[in-house]
Design a protein that fits this description.
homotetramer; 339 residues; Rossmann fold; Dihydrodipicolinate Reductase, domain 2; 2 domains; 7-stranded mixed sheet; 13 strands; globular
Chain lengths: 339, 339, 339, 339
């Protein structure tokens, strides 16, 4: 048997944590050596998630990892990740941070969008944005990977072919529908089942943290300032995300650009019918349906992902595979559970 | 007791039909004298909808109304309405047509968007578009009211203040989320419960019938040609609609325009938080949340309605009240069943 | 205009409270003079439920009613009702208590099932159990009505014809499916939308408060000790309840007993097909589907209600109508919003 | 690499077919050589299920397998399986039949419950009922395995410890809640999304095909005639099944019997809290929560499975593994996708 990499999962009891556990527990080259949890420290994993059995279920959740490991997955609040990352890097650990603490290479964004001053701005430059389709080579070498947000993953993959082709973009209007798990595992009245059942609502319409994240990647990759109008809407499903983008830009050969960009990508597919969210649930896939709207004169793209999959934890594992030099698809699914 | 108006409902067994029955059966000035149905003619209403009891439930569904009436509600396929309307008008009936057959005052649209030549173009001019907030006075006098589509209702009400204020509009990007009842009562594999459960998908992205309907009203009311990028998405709820609009236009005083336009309106409310679809279900309300996005330089509006309520049948009753000279709110609800 | 009865609603911001508000705000003979709330005292009703507009929405939630009234609806925790009721009765108010504090005429039950000693056992005898189909005449005269629980309503109505016919009953096995609103408006992790979505689970299988309530009514009405095996299951809908009962008893003429018992009842219907929960949502109806299972030798009954309607708030209004001498159906719906 | 077994899937485009495809496409010892479909013959698999990509997605659906294989999975209508099985057995194929055509070793049942005379009664004796926990050794040698129905799986596993312990059983009352996928992929008005959303209803209360199946296994294994009152209820989820059983029987040591029976079983777990359906979705698990109800004097058991997993396709793969002499857990999941 080939050697396993020892990993720790910080914050194992939230939704990105449990998804990661699910994937990593089946990954052939991973040994999970530690799980931390603030809320459940001292209890066994099976007490929180009874469906984890055997030795994994028996493991105790810890405040701090008690065993040595090579790489840490951080499924923590932004502020907690912010402070932990420098410490881990100093100890020589490799880190995949699923929070937003190191995603944006511009410290000025943090007070406005995250509510804190960024205390480690020099690390923002060392962090590699973990979108393999865009930054694959850098990810392989990175010590610190900032795993993208779910909305940015669905939106950046939908416009990357333009950036790559050098198409000049003026404005982007993006409306994104997200399942409720995107808001995390903390209860709230508007997510109480009887309230959310049959409901739809938009939120954070004028100031969402993912806007500067998207704009900063477009700036870095496309060398453009783009104006992004972003409207997120919560829909009554547990998992899944659909983004609809209208991009006002120069006319270009849409299909060629998309097929060319993603031809070799294992997890991005350009499809010829508007895609269904159910076709990507529990996978690491992103499906894109782009076309040029002649009448209006803009590019229209629909993009679907699993917000906890390609939008979070399975993408983190894709990054992990790249960092470890493993086959990129190892342990990752491309077939949803249907229906 | 005041006199009741005799009405017939054509196509009573679809979703707009049953919603209309529900409202009209409680309306104090209506007497339902006939119900027609192609699929269920010869059967009693209670055999189709067991929750209609008493004399209403006992009534037979007919192929043609067997009793005389004053006004007809048509909940029929477009093609059927198209042919029936001229006949009814000739017989002196007043008609509220919930189909799309007489909504657009431009016969050229029909072959392209509806798949038929419009055989009665002279009647398109006589039809009044049944959006009371815009055409109230004309509706009162109309013999033929073309009841708006659900998407157009949610979108036109969201931009009407601009049209009224004479704001010059360049482009509109509208993404609308609709409950599945909007697609009607005909079964289809993608609406089979196990398939639609937990799913989201966009459709008709390049050619939806409601686009020329919206554009034609904007042209008529605002005297402008506007470019509309429209993306409808089906979401797994039964009823409800949320539209998110980004309008690229001259800057103007948003709140004043909206409050001014809708101050006296009984069924449109300008709200200060993004509205919930659940707050309008089973009502005739439309809630609007508009604001100016400084960063992008556009108007953003979120609009919610019940697609079968203000988007169809309760709006038809609002039109009916106007046509009959009744109090406009008669028989119409403003309080949703919650939760 | 006929005179209105002044009522106060204690605990107006839970689910039974909001349902009651919804019904009473449309009731022609009610004037709501006060709303209380522990959690939201000092705020306006519209701040909690934005869909209440006008003068009702503007009303302040109070800690104690500041205006005089005739009758109080109590939508309070059991312990709070327990202490409040004696005080209100002393002041001469009539009371409809939607909690369980006065439902069971046997004080010994309370420590075991409710966790408190009943401090006012003499009032248990004065309380009338508010199931109109069984105790109509007593309700008319009552000063204190203990409004039944949702499970007991669905189950007692399903077996009342046996009790009335004097059929000797041995055992009842009842499995009841309840929408999540039955658990109230307090958030909990297992009712967090992403957890409850797509889930089913049974709970309180060995000791549910509604068991002694049902047994005590059967004892009182049927003069029998019956052994009840009761299994409640939470299902992922907001409102609605379906009970499936297998009753081991003497053979009797099922249809005759049921039709005879409920022939004159406005809100109970004996149906000839297994009923749908959706056909009773937002109504005060109970639908019963009984038949004799020859093979097993037992009575099988399926019963559906809206847990917040006939299972709580609309039943409270039915009781109110009886207490006031109003028409029993006043302000109550028999047609669901469909679909 | 170890040798793969060539298999054919008949009826690959229904829900049990697609679930089987999903599992088998990841199974390390399976080579799918043929897929048949009546409805979609001549089309590629990816045209029906776009999420199957690569060589599997490219494969054509056939009317008859064009390539030789060792074992056939039949996901066909009962009548079709009935006629096909003898032919396949004659050609020396091994067969796992997911229909009901060969489940009951009593030909008299078929006309009454399935609507056809069983033309091959001699084969009923050769068929082994594919419930590994009960018939493991016979399954290993079987040429024809009749894969159990979903309701019988959830119910028989819930009572098997009694049968094994020789506890005398009098009556069983079972109420089972099933997700809609259990009814198959054929559209029907009551499963149209807007109708089923928020609904619950019981069906086939007096004559369900699974009743003789359960009774016949209890007779065979327990040597008893048991009276089963079975009430199935459809609930608005896609997948999942919860059965609640009240068993009137001699008193016995419940926990010991259950733990003893299932101690070594890889896919059955006796749990100490009422189990959640979500904890078994997309797995081959069955969770059982049994206890003795002292007050009523009966055994109460709650059982949860995935109706398409342990209730159909993953159980078929468990049977396949046994038949092939593979490790029983090969290719089967025990961790659900959560949330």
């Amino acid at each position: 048997m080939e050697q396993e990499v020892k990993v720790a999962i910080y914050g194992a009891t939230g939704y990105t944590g449990v998804e990661l556990l699910n994937i990593l527990s089946k990954h052939p080259r991973v040994k999970i050596v530690s799980l931390t949890s603030q809320s459940y420290a001292g209890r066994r994993l099976r007490e929180v998630f009874p469906f984890f059995e055997g030795s994994l279920g028996d493991r105790f959740l810890e405040e701090e990892p008690s065993e040595d490991y090579h790489l840490a997955f951080l499924c923590l609040p932004h502020e907690t990740s912010l402070e932990l990352v420098p410490r881990l890097l100093e100890y020589g650990k490799r880190v995949i941070d699923l929070s937003g603490a190191y995603r944006i290479n511009n410290k000025a964004v943090y007070p406005e969008y995250y509510g804190f001053e960024h205390s480690y701005p020099h690390l923002l430059e060392r962090a590699v944005y973990g979108l393999p389709e865009v930054f694959r080579e850098k990810i392989k070498e990175a010590q610190l990977v900032a795993n993208p947000g779910c909305y940015p993953t669905s939106i950046i993959l939908a416009v990357y072919p333009l950036l790559k082709a050098g198409v000049k973009v003026d404005k982007i209007v993006a409306t994104s529908l997200s399942g409720v798990s995107g808001a995390g595992r903390k209860t709230a009245l508007h997510f109480h089942f009887p309230e959310m059942f049959g409901d739809l609502f938009a939120y954070s319409l004028d100031r969402h943290r993912h806007v500067p994240e998207i704009e900063s990647i477009i700036r870095e990759v496309g060398g453009m300032e783009v104006s992004l109008r972003f409207s997120p809407v919560v829909v009554p499903i547990s998992k899944g995300m659909l983004s609809s983008l209208s991009v006002f830009c120069e006319r270009f050969d849409v299909l060629e650009a998309y097929l060319e960009t993603y031809r070799e990508e294992p997890f991005v597919r350009v499809v010829s019918e508007p895609p269904h969210v159910k076709h990507v649930l529990n996978t690491n896939l992103c499906l894109l349906y782009p076309f040029w709207d002649d009448k209006v004169g803009c590019l229209q793209v629909v993009s679907v992902i699993d917000n906890l999959g390609k939008g979070a934890s399975s993408q983190a594992v894709q990054n992990f595979n790249l960092m470890m030099g493993f086959e990129e698809e190892m342990g990752l699914s491309k077939v949803p559970n249907f229906p």
